[in-house]
Design brief:
This protein is an all-alpha fold and 107 residues long. The chain contains 5 helices and no strands.
């Protein structure tokens, strides 16, 4: 099993590339395009996972999930957040039923 530290390494790479020239970095291009460009990529990758799942293509589901996670890491960085912020939230929810957790949210 791959170590979850890969998420931290990717986040650090994203941060480093965020400041590079757009002609040299896909990540820099996304940041330069702003939040809407990043969100558009997340929507696109989400749709691709849905299609791969409906097609029953497990390999493609893995591939598209990796794309989605990568773009979500970019969005986290855009907001000044890290994978550890998400991990802490998942850890907080551990052992709580989904129904109970949802009811505990304030509206």
């Amino acid at each position: 099993m791959t170590n979850p530290i890969i998420l931290d390494r990717l986040a650090k790479t994203i941060e480093a590339r965020r400041q590079t020239e757009t002609q040299n970095s896909y990540v820099a291009k996304l940041f330069h395009g702003g939040q809407d460009k990043i969100l558009k990529k997340i929507a696109e990758e989400s749709a691709e996972i849905i299609m791969a799942s409906k097609d029953g293509d497990s390999d493609q589901v893995i591939y598209e999930t990796a794309d989605l996670w990568f773009h979500c890491l970019i969005l986290l960085s855009y907001h000044g957040l890290t994978p550890n912020d998400v991990m802490r939230e998942l850890e907080r929810r551990e052992g709580i039923s989904g129904i109970e957790e949802k009811l505990s949210r304030t509206t």
